[in-house]
Write a structure and sequence with these properties.
Residues 60-222 form the EVE domain. Residues 1-52 are annotated as: Disordered. This protein is of the alpha+beta class. The chain has a domain at 60-174 and 207-213: ph1033 like domains (ph1033 like fold), CATH 3.10.590.10. Helices cover 28% and strands 27% of the residues. The protein is built from 7 helices and 10 strands. The strands form 3 sheets. The chain has a 6-stranded mixed β-sheet. A hairpin with a 6-residue loop joins strand 7 and strand 8 (126-139). The longest helix has 15 residues, at 35-49. The radius of gyration is 18 Å and the shape is globular.
Length: 229
């Protein structure tokens, strides 16, 4: 039944365009420009860990959100990082997910885990900030609101189908990390076995909630220290 579900959605992001289309909007990265970055990062990480590879588990996340106005059933679903920062205590609920796999990822989130805030479906998609989970999964109230664009008439209050979490702003990344740059590393890592080789941003592009391994999170975070390609 999950195959028949619409693409992952949240009130803050409606993934009507695929990441392939987003990639076409972004600047094409230089060929092979990421390998040296991966090797330098790997050398540093091996030095820090004594050369031991970390166990592959999902402990961080990537949350997509639309920074530009777009109406869904008469409601503007825009929600940028500036909108989050403007919320009381810079905290909000992450509602509107209507894809079973994305919902299950929400339900797997643990208190205190960090996530990348990713601007999606815009001129130049990419990572802009870090947020953290401050409340674990609980029923998404929008599924019961007939005026909400994500109302689900098949969901029952005694057994809710959809969940949400609360997230809080942590900090902006030191620089904007564009999708095009992340893709360049992903392609290089597919060839040489780097940490982004299986990154879900490219294997399940349209999911708005995506898990990250520790290595994936650490490598992407390390990019904020580098000059843009």
């Amino acid at each position: 039944s999950d195959k028949k579900e619409p693409d992952a959605k949240i009130a803050k992001t409606e993934e009507e365009t695929s990441d392939k289309e987003e990639e076409e909007k972004s600047t094409k990265p230089p060929a092979g420009g990421s390998k040296s970055g991966w090797k330098n990062w790997k050398k540093t990480k091996e030095s820090d860990s004594g050369g031991e590879e970390s166990k592959i588990t999902y402990c961080h996340w990537l949350l997509k959100s639309e920074p530009e106005s777009r109406l869904e059933k008469g409601v503007d679903v825009k929600f940028s990082i500036d909108d989050l920062k403007a919320q009381p205590n810079q905290t909000t609920f992450w509602d509107g997910v209507r894809n079973y796999q994305a919902r299950n990822f929400l339900r797997a989130m643990k208190l205190g885990q960090q996530a990348f805030f990713y601007h999606s479906n815009c001129k130049e998609p990419g990572i802009v900030a870090i947020v953290k989970i401050v409340k674990e999964a609980y029923p998404d109230h929008t599924q019961f609101d007939q005026k909400d664009p994500h109302y689900d008439s098949s969901s029952r209050k005694e057994n809710p189908k959809w969940s949400m979490v609360d997230v809080q702003f942590v900090r902006m990344t030191k620089r904007f990390i564009p999708l095009s740059e992340i893709k360049a590393h992903h392609l290089a890592h597919k060839a040489d076995g780097g940490p982004l080789k299986n990154m879900m941003l490219f294997t399940r592009q349209r999911l708005s909630i995506q898990p990250l391994t520790q290595e994936e999170f650490d490598f992407v975070l390390s990019l904020e220290e580098e000059k843009p390609q």
